[in-house]
Amino acid sequence: MTISNGLVPGSVVPGATPAAASGPEHVETPVAYDAILLASFGGPEGQDDVIPFLRNVTRGRGIPDERLEEVAHHYRAFGGISPINEQNRELKAALETELARRGIDLPVIWGNRNWEPYLSDAVAEARERGFEKLIAIGTSAYSSYSSCRQYREDYAIALEKTGLEGQLQIDKVRQFFDHPGFVQPFIDGVRQGFEDAAAAGFPLADTHVLFSTHSIPSTDAAKSGPASRGFGEGGAYEAQHLAVAEVVIAATTDASGPDVDWSLVYQSRSGPPTQPWLAPDINDAMRTLSAQGTKAFIIVPLGFVSDHMEVKWDLDTEAMETAEELGVFATRVPTPGVHPAYVSGLVDLVLERVNGTPTADRPALTALGPWYDVCRPGCCENVRLGFKPALAGLAP
């Protein structure tokens, strides 16, 4: 079956610039974008915002406020304020500074999925300012429904909500899990972590590196990334984290020295007990490893771009309490935040699309990348919800 332009169904990318509309894996045609769309999760900024925010996050699941309050105490412990919005303000400012330093005239417009300013506000602002072509940066580095496809759905929803379909085009930068700008802050942090552990009297033989990321339902993990890549049960989500962890370990240890023990662990599970999620939980892993003789932990928030609530609560609070309970040393590595390498790397990712950089010239620290500019058909399906309209990828 074909459609009027001779292409097979699903081969036209909706809402894309002409360079991306035919769906190449990597767009090597220069595009004159008007602005950058910085897209994030969003978070409450006061106690009165917490429950309305959590209603937004869980929209469509029918979860009563009483159950939401069980999660709300994480935010209430910090005055009802998630750190994520302020971190995005800082990132936006850092991007603007870096763009100005390089003489690049691209305004940065910020919008959230779950709290003000919403993505619909951002695209409305873009149109009011006369912009027609946006390049989006989602503040998640890996492939999964919540960290990639859901952002693409958000872009489609924002255009529909504002009535701007056909008036604004939105492309996105590739998932940047193995871009040097994202990885370097973790390398710096793990090096410092080894020094801190040694200063506290714990050599490498006593130390275990825990690379932690957000757990997701096992069914979603299996659907992350194109099925054709054959990543297995953990999908691209698990494979990408493991590949980056290997890069960090290789960069922070002497090849002639002792091997360093490390593992990939998960945190922030929120699903019902009957639903399988990626495991092991970081606290369970710490207890098991401590019983086996580990005396020091370096905790690396590998799945996070900044100190989200999950980092502040699940790692800085709960995991540190577990370490204290076990009587072991633990230190948490910083997230990229506004690390100069990270900010510069995000600008480099935008310039790949502005300049149409050949794929062979794009940096990637693992054999999995550079990842796709245009997401592949069926990538990162949400099994529970199915496929919804999404930009920056081939249908479905």
Structural notes for this entry:
The chain is α/β, with parallel strands linked by helices and 396 residues long. The chain is 40% helix and 11% strand. It contains 12 helices and 8 strands. The strands form 2 sheets. A 4-stranded parallel β-sheet has the order 2-1-3-4, sandwiched between helices. Strands 6-5-7-8 form a 4-stranded parallel β-sheet, with helices on both faces. α5 packs across α6 and α10 runs parallel beside α11. The two termini are 16 Å apart. The N terminus is likely disordered.
Quick synopsis:
This protein is an alpha/beta fold.
Shape: globular
Provide the low-confidence segments as ranges.
1-7
The neighbouring-strand order within the major sheet is 2-1-3-4
What structural category arises from helix and sheet content? alpha/beta
Mean of residue pLDDT values: 94
Count the DSSP helices: 12
CA radius of gyration is 21 Å
- Write the element-wise H/E pattern from the N-terminal end onward: HEHHHEHEHEHEHHEHEHEH
Distance between the termini: 16 Å
Largest sheet: 4 strands, parallel
Number of strands: 8
Helix content: 25-40%
Query: Which percent range describes the beta-strand content?
Result: 5-15%
List keywords for this structure.
396 residues; alpha/beta; four-stranded parallel β-sheet; 8 strands; disordered N terminus
Please give the structural blueprint:
Layout: H1 18-21, E1 35-40, H2 50-57, H3 65-76, H4 84-101, E2 108-112, H5 119-128, E3 133-138, H6 145-162, E4 169-172, H7 180-199, E5 207-214, H8 218-222, H9 235-252, E6 261-267, H10 282-291, E7 296-300, H11 309-326, E8 329-332, H12 340-355
Parallel strand pairs: 1-2, 1-3, 3-4, 5-6, 5-7, 7-8
